[in-house]
């Protein structure tokens, strides 16, 4: 757990750099921090236009607003993942000047990008939560949402530690990231649910951790359910990936300077 120890040891510096990164993203913009709210809403509007108005997708037993909430509950975690995955994977290569910095270890550069991505999408999660409270009221299972969000951050951070490390040695991975993100957007149940997937293709969902994540959010937020088995498996997966990613970047970071 050396990576976790590094995060805790440098938590104040990490916190300060995350704040700095957030300010950099919003400073100079006419709308400033409002973009943190507009970004997920604009994506939701596009998805709603395509799936609700053009394709006229409907889920039996759900009204139009409930279907929009289903889309939003899949879209927000995916946007957080996509932003963190895209910027985090290239963060080591883009930060050559920090490779020999002992005050701010390179593994924290990756963590900074992952946390920034999930902080901006945290605003979208608050919007989703507020909409669910308005249309469905409160339920004790909503208290599990922060736990799932934390597990999502752990999973993504572990994954991005791995991809950022591999990118140092195999630069071609940078070109594959946008394609991979687009592929994951298509095969993740954002505009549809797992029940709408044909039996022959459900293996894709079983192999896609983002699908597990979206179903957990929907179960806790909209159905008032706690799928304990799914939650336990996802927590185990997130912890294992976090541990493996942290071990890999700490093991190979002495070689980064020779390949940067």
From TrEMBL:
GO molecular function: ABC-type transporter activity
Pfam families: ABC2_membrane (PF01061)
Membrane topology category: Multi-pass membrane protein
GO cellular component: plasma membrane
Subcellular location: Cell inner membrane
Boundaries of every ABC transmembrane type-2 domain copy: 31-252
One BP annotation, GO: lipopolysaccharide transport
Residues of the signal peptide: none
Keywords recorded for this protein, A-Z: Cell inner membrane, Cell membrane, Membrane, Plasmid, Transmembrane, Transmembrane helix, Transport
Protein name: Transport permease protein
């Amino acid at each position: 757990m050396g990576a976790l120890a590094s995060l805790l040891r440098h938590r104040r510096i990490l916190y300060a750099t995350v704040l700095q990164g957030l300010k950099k993203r919003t400073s100079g913009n006419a709308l400033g921090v409002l973009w943190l709210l507009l970004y997920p809403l604009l994506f939701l509007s596009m998805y709603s236009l395509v799936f609700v108005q053009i394709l006229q997708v409907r889920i039996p037993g759900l009204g139009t607003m409930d279907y929009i909430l289903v889309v939003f509950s899949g879209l927000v975690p995916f946007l957080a993942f996509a932003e963190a995955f895209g910027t985090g994977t290239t963060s080591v290569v883009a930060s050559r000047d920090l490779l020999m910095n002992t005050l701010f270890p390179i593994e924290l550069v990756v963590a900074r990008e992952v946390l920034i991505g999930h902080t901006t999408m945290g605003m979208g999660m608050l919007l989703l939560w507020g909409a669910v409270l308005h249309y469905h009221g409160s339920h004790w299972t909503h208290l599990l949402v922060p736990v799932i969000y934390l597990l999502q951050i752990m999973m993504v951070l572990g994954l991005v530690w791995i991809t950022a490390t591999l990118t140092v040695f195999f630069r071609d991975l940078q070109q594959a990231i946008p394609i991979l993100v687009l592929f994951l957007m298509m095969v993740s149940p954002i505009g549809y649910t797992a029940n709408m997937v044909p039996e022959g293709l459900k293996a894709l969902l079983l192999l896609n951790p983002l699908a597990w994540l979206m179903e957990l959010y929907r179960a806790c937020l909209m159905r008032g359910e706690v799928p304990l088995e799914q939650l336990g498996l996802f927590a185990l997966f997130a912890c294992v990936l976090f541990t493996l990613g942290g071990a890999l970047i700490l093991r190979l970071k002495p070689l980064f300077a020779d390949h940067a």
